[in-house]
Amino acid sequence: MRWLRPLAMTAAVTTLCASIAACSTSPTGRSQLLLLPDSQLNEMGQQAFAQYQRDIPTADQASHRYVQCITEAIIDVLPDDQRNQDWQIRVFRADQPNAFALPGGYMGVNTGMLDIATDQNQLASVIGHEIGHVLARHANERASTQSATSLGLSVISSASGMQTPAGQQLMGVLGMGAEYGIALPFSRRHESEADAIGLQLMAEAGFDPRESVTLWENMQAASSGGEPPAWMSTHPSQGQRIQGLQANMDQAMATYEQARAQGRAPNCQRS
């Protein structure tokens, strides 16, 4: 998928925001172009998640309980309107150290990620990151920008069903098309923003935010001497991600210490 250059994209978003009531603000205060109804995207997310579960084997129950324990601890610190949506997470048997998030709160973690994230704190940084994608409505922003610039606004107005050509185009834009595109990366801006949101969430839940850096050090070690995985091709580099996390670490540590003082001490074990 070809993306507009940053300046061209910014100009396009600014023009659209000036002409239609389609602008919103992300949790970090960044302006967003959101053209699609969340209900439509959530339905797409639900259907793609169901298909993924039919096609990819899931992991053992112990892995599910472990990941669910961490997820619930993070979701518990969300505001009521966010906490009460239908969050779902599954663990899939796949060696690639990856995770994904879909509109509506549907998330997946590969067993390969459990080998890289060696404790609950490191995995909490992964899950917090994916929750950050959902809270920031990155899928809506991605689909809206791509639709407005490449497919045309007519796609959005006519996409009334999943099986229509327009609906199929939107599925492709969301990365939910053939070959399990739901695991495709968001833009680098989205990835960095989800890192920042996830760092704060894991700290609020009582997970040690310093372990988010350890996770990416583990990722660096795992890919040492070879090409980075294809799914990371449009992500920030591991070094850039570590730098971004460290830039937000003082605030995250203050939040973490407050959470621990309030008795938040998750104890999720992979047995």
Automatic annotation (TrEMBL):
<comment type="similarity">
    <text>Belongs to the peptidase M48 family.</text>
</comment>
<keyword id="KW-0645">Protease</keyword>
<dbReference type="InterPro" id="IPR051156">
    <property type="entry name" value="Mito/Outer_Membr_Metalloprot"/>
</dbReference>
<dbReference type="InterPro" id="IPR001915">
    <property type="entry name" value="Peptidase_M48"/>
</dbReference>
<protein>
    <submittedName>
        <fullName>M48 family metallopeptidase</fullName>
    </submittedName>
</protein>
<keyword id="KW-0862">Zinc</keyword>
<keyword id="KW-0378">Hydrolase</keyword>
<keyword id="KW-0732">Signal</keyword>
<feature type="signal peptide">
    <location>
        <begin position="1"/>
        <end position="21"/>
    </location>
</feature>
<keyword id="KW-0482">Metalloprotease</keyword>
<dbReference type="Pfam" id="PF01435">
    <property type="entry name" value="Peptidase_M48"/>
</dbReference>
<keyword id="KW-0479">Metal-binding</keyword>
<feature type="domain" description="Peptidase M48">
    <location>
        <begin position="64"/>
        <end position="247"/>
    </location>
</feature>
